[in-house]
Amino acid sequence: MITQSAPANELTPLEQAVLTEPRKRTITFGLPSGLEHGERRFALTPEGAARLTDCGIAVKIQRGAGEPIHYSDAAYERAGATLCSRAEALQAEVVISTAALSAGEAATLRRGTLLLTLLQPVVGNPLAAKALLRAGVNVVAADLINTDGHRLIADILHEIDGCASMAIASAMLTDPIHGKGILLGGVTGIVPCEVTVIGSGMGAIAAAHNALGAGATVRMFDNDLYSLRSAGRVLDHRCIASALHPKVLRSALRSADVVVVTPMRTPTVVDSDIADEMKKRVLIFDLTSTPGATFPSIPVIDLSAPSVSTLAAGDARACYCNVGNRVPRTAAMALSNALVGNADALRQTLGSLADLPRPMRPAMLTYWGKCVNPRLAEALGIRALDINLLTGN
After folding, report:
1. What is the CATH number of the domain that holds 227?
2. How far is the C-alpha of 308 from the C-alpha of 288, rounded, in Å?
3. Is 383 helix (H, G, I), strand (E, B) or coil?
4. What is the tens place of the pLDDT at every residue in 133-174?
């Protein structure tokens, strides 16, 4: 603003505030629904959408994407998000999808698009992964983001799976028709159920903690003794922890009512002769990225299906996978918090490799048509390029 002072023919300039901090470039996050591909978890809540829009990020959400987690389109619109078609969501600068994209959808992404997803949907879908490489899409696996030595998002998802497995097991056991009509434990004078947990990571700890809280007897097995010791300390040594010795594991499986299989550094395989010795109607929950690999002789039931019946009368055993899809709203809140917390890092990832944040480097799967993740390269039968060679660090 300029004011006039004496003498009348002279103008006196006054100080004016000047913007010294450069404005961040507005980018667009597109979130397609995962329901078409059997994924009920959605990565953003309306509260998270509001926080992203407050940061200057444009959010586009496919119509109806929030239905599996019981959020209406109107709730997202009130939070500042824009509703759009699936095709429009896939044209955003940053596409966020917990579900696998089809090869056709991957081919429609623009070159240089940043796709934030999970590791298994990409590794487990070679056709789509090859399409992403041909399209020059930069893919980041959220569960590989490493912050201060911890994979926070992966730990959160494993914790949810571990808690959900015991909640579902408890409901199935109490079913008087299809289940056994029993409680996990906690009743005076009645022997509690036995829960066997294979692995000792975050998911294993969560499952064991919930089983112990219900009064069950818990046995935990792992060949990683340091991880097993750490889990024992977290659980106040209330569970029976043991190295994964075949004879001891066999004995535990023979008497187990519930078995929870979690990720381990060295996976184990249970032979069919051991599986045949297990109790009738034993409940097995596979929380690994390769469901059924631990118990190959037992049929796998995907809990992400809209309606999955429990064991029918006369059926012996079943292995349940995709447990997190039974609690999609809890998973959505956890993923939304993580997404908001990593928004700036995602913005920087759109820049040059020199600006790539360190937590994002181990999470990169592809970069401008190059495969930079060993596990993805193994699945595709190609050689991975070390991303540190591209960054110069």
Report:
1. 3.40.50.720
2. 20
3. coil
4. 999 999 999 999 988 778 889 999 999 999 999 999 999 999
* 337 and 301 inside one domain: no
Return the number of other C-beta atoms located less than 10 Å from residue 108's C-beta. 14
Query: Does residue 3 form part of some domain?
Result: no
The parent domain of residue 162 ranges over 158-326
Note the pLDDT tens digit of each residue in 174-196: 988 777 888 999 898 899 999 99
Nearest to 151 by CA among 202, 215, 105, 200: 202
Structure tokens that stand for 236 in this block: 């106040």
Q: Where are the alpha helices (DSSP H) in 321-380?
A: 328-341, 343-349, 374-380
Tokens found for residue 262: 């979690």
Distance CA 284, CA 57 (A): 42
pLDDT reported for residue 13: 64
**Same domain for 372 and 271:** no
- Residue where a domain stops, chosen among 326, 360, 380: 326
Q: Residue 219 corresponds to which tokens in the numbers above?
A: 């046995």
Q: Which among 28, 161, 33, 47 is positioned nearest to 97, based on CA atoms?
A: 33
Prediction pTM value: 0.86
Which run of H or E residues covers position 195?
Answer: strand 194-198
Query: Helix crossing, 202-213 with 225-234: angle to 10°?
Result: 40
Examine the domain organization and report whether 50 and 194 are in the same domain. Answer: no
Residues 180, 257: Cα–Cα separation, whole Å: 10
Whether residue 237 is found in the same domain as residue 347: no
CA distances from 193 to 75, 101, 284 (A): 43, 41, 14
Q: Which residues of the chain have pLDDT under 70?
A: 1-25, 306-315, 351-355, 390-393
- Cα–Cα distances in angstroms (integers) from residue 168 to residues 24, 72, 245, 280, 325, in the given order: 45, 26, 28, 18, 12
Tell me how far apart the alpha carbons of residues 127 and 134 are, in angstroms, rounded to a whole number: 11
